Structures are given as C-alpha cells and as structure tokens.
Amino acid sequence: MVSIGPSFGKTMVVPKELDGANLTQGTARVAVRPGLCTRYVVWALQSQTSVDFWESSIGGATFRALNLGPLAETPIPLPARDEQRAIADYLDRETARIDTLMDEQQRLIAMLRERRAAVISTALTPTDSWLRRRIKHIGETSLGKMLDAGRAVRPGDELRPYVRAADVRADGSVNLVDLNQMPFSEAEMEAFDLRSGDVLLIEGGATVGRPGFMFESAPGVAFQKTVNRLRVGHQADARFVYWSMLRLYELAYYANHYGSVSFVHLTGEKLREIELSLPSVDEQRVIAAHLDEQTAKIDALIAETERFIELARERRSALITAAVTGELDVREVA
C-alpha cells in the first residue's frame, strides 16, 4: 500500500488482519506480481530513485499528490528473486538498527526538553519575598495592526515589512527576514514599532501565548494583529518576563485558563490581567542570565542530537537506494 496524497510515498505491507479492508482516500494498492518478493518491492518504492521519479511527475503542481499513472510507471530494478530476498533481508536488518538508534536519540531529546522545562520551573519558583504583579502594572501591551487586504492605499502610506504569528519561532527568536508587507502610515510605524527588549506573544491559535524576544530593535519593521507586543517598564527585567511568559505557555496556562473556548485568543485585556511572580529587578536579571546560560547548553545538545538523527535518516535513505539499485552488493556486506 502506498500513500498518494500530499504526504505521498509512505509504503507498507498490508498485515493479514487487514486483508479485505477498504482503502481510504489518499492511498493506493500495489498488487505485487507472483514471482516477486513483496518486501523487496516495498523497499524499492522507498528508494530515492522512486521518490525522484514521482517528484518529476508532479512538477510545480499546487496540490501535491501522486497520480496512479506515475505510480504504475515507476521503474523498479528487478534482480533475481533470490537476490531480491537477500536485499530485503539486509534492509530489514540494517534499517531496524538505524531506526532503533534514532528512537534512542528521540528519547534523549525528550529527556533534554524535560530537563530544560525543569530548569526554567525551578528558577522561577517564587520565594516568600517575591511579589505578584499584573502585567498592566509592569508594562504596556499593544495588539498589532489589522491586515488591510483590499483597502485602498492612503496618501503617505508606504509598504513596510511586518512580523506575524508565524515569525515568532518556537525557540523564542523572531524572524526578521523575508517578511510580508502591507501599507503603514508614519504614525502607524511609530505605534507598531519593535524595540530591543520587546516581548512578542502569539495572539491566537494552537500556539497562543508562545513568546518571542526582540534582542535588538528592528527599525522600519512593524507587527500585525496576530501578535501582541509587551513592552516592560523599569519595574521588571524584560528577559525575566520573557522566561515567565514561556513558563506559562509550557504549562498550558492559556488552554487551562480559557479551556471552555474552542479557539483561544490572548486579547490585550486578558494579557494585561495575567499575574507574574517577581523578585527584585536585580534578582530578575540574575535569574534571566542563569536561564539564558543553562538553556543554551541544553539547546546545543538538542541541536546536536537532531543533527545526528537527520544524518541517520540520510544514511537510511542512501542505504535503501544503494541496495535496490545494485550500487551496494549486499552479499559482500551481509
């Protein structure tokens, strides 16, 4: 069975318990001809050669899906049946080893992320000396400009780049490259500017409340209404506030707090009423610096592990392609 929808190319042998079941939309049945090794055909369809053939049939189509025609025309090398079995046995064994290794690395990443969350939680656990303050008492919030789709450009307006929710990244950085643009007046650019120390929070959707941090000012760049800007005053350290908002996000604060709403919006009113626990500003700076240092170390380990997994995936793909195309003689490496 082969997936032929947008995520085309996934293959599997139908297990006996599903014999006779109906196919869902987006899948195709490949009936292997008698005399061929089914497992070998499955591996051949996973080779980069097959993927490249399918990609060439799709070209620049807007809706990426694999048609039955190109699937049926997919060229597959067909060595003798005994060699097909040998290749399938080899790939079963070697890819299982790679898959086990990747699973171990994925578990390591999960442990590192748990460790990261624990470091943040421990550092932000308040003591009796910490004070509770609503965000409206430590800074100013602003929702970005509404999209002006279809509206005539006013005299004096200029196309300007703007940050939207998609530009607030999971790692807390904010993308400032290749941004979308829309018309802004000079007054709007002043109202929706982005300065060093601003905390940006996604306004709605699955990642509502996820924060990003502006390490530097971005002259000439504004922000759109899918993003809230929190500009902290002298009563708090902006980086400490970022970490506090990240902790709320990772604790699913918004889903739990507004759980009865199907699509949660972090409105300015809601944001301003959120309470944070704050030590003295000096202690905030020390804690923020500690979290920057410790999470950077953990993030480096996560990135290194992710690179290892990516290399293992590439190795797996190359191994499959080499085996089914005959570049690798499995009898010599068995």
Spans where pLDDT lies below 50 across 5 or more residues: none
- State the separation between the terminal residues, measured CA to CA: 28 Å
CATH level-4 homologous superfamily of the largest domain: DNA methylase specificity domains
Radius of gyration: 27 Å
- The H-and-E topology, N to C, reads as EEHHHHEEEEHEEEEHHHEHH
Helical content, roughly?
40-55%
| Tally of DSSP β-strands | 11
Sheet bearing the most strands, described? 4 strands, antiparallel
Strand order of the largest sheet: 4-10-7-8
Beta-sheet strand percentage?
5-15%
Task: Give a concise summary.
The chain is α+β, with helices and mostly antiparallel strands and 334 residues long. Helix content is 44%, strand content 13%. The mean pLDDT is 92.
Question: What features would you describe in this structure?
Answer:
The chain has 334 residues and is an alpha+beta fold. Helices cover 44% and strands 13% of the residues. The protein has helices spanning 38-45, 48-58, 68-72, 81-123, 186-191, 238-250, 253-257, 268-273, 281-325, 330-333, and strands spanning 2-3, 27-28, 131-134, 139-143, 158-163, 181-184, 199-202, 211-213, 222-223, 227-232, 275-278. A four-stranded antiparallel sheet has the order 4-10-7-8. A three-stranded mixed sheet has the order 6-5-9. A hairpin with an 8-residue loop joins strand 7 (199-202) and strand 8 (211-213). Pfam families: Methylase_S. GO terms for molecular function: DNA binding.
